[in-house]
Design brief:
By secondary structure, the chain is α/β, with parallel strands linked by helices. The protein has a single domain, classed as TIM Barrel, CATH 3.20.20.140. Helix content is about 25%, strand content about 25%. It is built from nine helices and 20 strands. It has a seven-stranded mixed β-sheet with strand order 3-2-1-4-18-19-20, covered by helices on one side. Strand 11, helix 5 and strand 12 form a beta-alpha-beta unit. Helix 5 crosses helix 6 and helix 8 crosses helix 9. The radius of gyration is 20 Å and the shape is globular.
Length: about 375
């Protein structure tokens, strides 16, 4: 057992003491206490990111060894597990990406975040709400979903529910045990409510690529704020105004954070690929040539710091970058520090800078 000491965030609150682990957590000893009463490090559950397109100059749609390179980059920023996220693309591009992701799911490399499966963000979206997605949107079919799932585990699929046939398919996908999120949609408030009634469970990058809230037309955002238990949000402070994040935090009990990170994450300013699209990193953001936001450069350690800067206490911020996402996927042994759970944890100093990352008990080299 490898023991480390500090202020440990457990499901029942803060413990000042010691946590010992191998690949799973063996014991946590200490006494309950406010971490502000001492100057020791914070020990939190590892971050869980359910929307990752890329990093370190690589894009999930490339196939090959791209998933491994991306998983290493995000591990160095505290992400201990993630969903590899696809783009709207021709089927042969999706097949190539899934082949590589499926292999990476089966074999986590040294220093890599665990890839839990796929977030299929396209192609079952509305062609009028592509955002930065290439123009290959099409209607969904359960036959194709099953074929994709045979290549790599589908854990989450983004669907525009207003497209003909999609509402019935939402129920089929949900009944197959795959989470369905509403996103890249032109649907109304009523479309959102019906999708939730048919088994949709959340919303993809809340506020972005969906109709906003108006007091006479509540839109898809209104459906989320009024009815959702879960939704993902990008807290890079570019995609969503801090005030809108506060609204979502107040309305959606288990709002969780994602990076929507691209190949530009962890890289200098310049030109990168996002699926078949060329994107440009500059001034802390990633955009298409016309200025449309195209994913982000966000990492989860910065997401945590951003949440704290908005006034969340550290325990609540930790839930938003870890526990809520684990609960959403039904990952009961991740996203929490308790005996028997995977030893996925991060150690942060008093300024919330990463000092150490452990993935299933393995210490990651933060400088690699």
């Amino acid at each position: 057992m490898h023991p480390i000491q500090g202020n440990i965030l457990t499901p029942s609150g803060w413990i000042h003491g010691e946590i010992a682990f191998a690949d799973t957590i063996g014991r946590i000893n200490g006494s309950a206490g406010d971490p502000s009463a001492n100057g020791d490090d914070y020990i939190l559950p590892g971050f869980i990111d359910l929307h990752v397109h890329g990093g370190a100059g690589r894009d999930m749609m490339e196939g090959g060894d791209a998933p491994h390179t991306i998983a290493r980059l995000h591990a160095r920023h505290g992400t201990t597990s993630l969903l590899a996220t696809t783009m709207t693309a021709p089927v042969e591009d999706i097949d190539r990406a899934l082949l590589a992701i499926g292999a990476a799911c089966k074999a986590r490399g040294q220093g890599e975040a665990r890839i839990l499966g796929v977030h299929l963000e396209g192609p079952y979206i509305n062609a009028g709400k592509l955002g930065a997605q290439p123009p290959f949107a099409r209607e969904a079919s359960m036959e194709e979903v099953r074929r994709f799932d045979a290549q790599a585990p589908m854990r989450l699929i983004t669907v525009a529910p207003e497209i003909d046939g999609h509402l019935a398919l939402v129920r089929q996908i949900a009944d197959a045990g795959i989470r369905v999120q509403i996103g890249h949609t032109s649907g109304s408030y009523e479309d959102g409510v019906r999708a939730l009634e048919h088994g949709a469970a959340g919303f993809t990058h809340l506020f972005n690529a969906m109709p906003g809230l108006h007091h006479r037309e509540p839109g898809m955002v209104g459906a989320a704020l009024a009815h959702a238990q879960y939704a993902e949000i990008i807290p890079d402070l570019l995609h969503v105004h801090p005030g809108a994040i506060q609204v979502a935090l107040r309305c959606i009990p288990q709002l969780y954070c994602v990076t929507d990170s691209t190949a530009a994450a962890g890289m200098p300013d310049g030109q990168y690929m996002l699926g078949r699209q060329t994107v440009h990193k500059c001034m802390g953001g990633v955009r298409l040539a016309d200025g449309t936001l195209a994913g982000s450069t966000l990492t989860m350690d910065q997401a945590l710091r951003n949440l704290v800067s908005l006034g969340l206490d550290l325990a609540d911020a930790s839930r938003r970058v870890s526990t809520n996402a684990a609960d959403y996927l039904g990952e009961t042994r991740r996203g929490r520090l308790a005996p028997g759970c995977f030893a996925d944890l991060v150690v942060l100093d008093r300024h919330l800078n990463l000092k150490a990352v452990y993935i299933e008990g393995e210490a990651c080299d933060l400088e690699a």
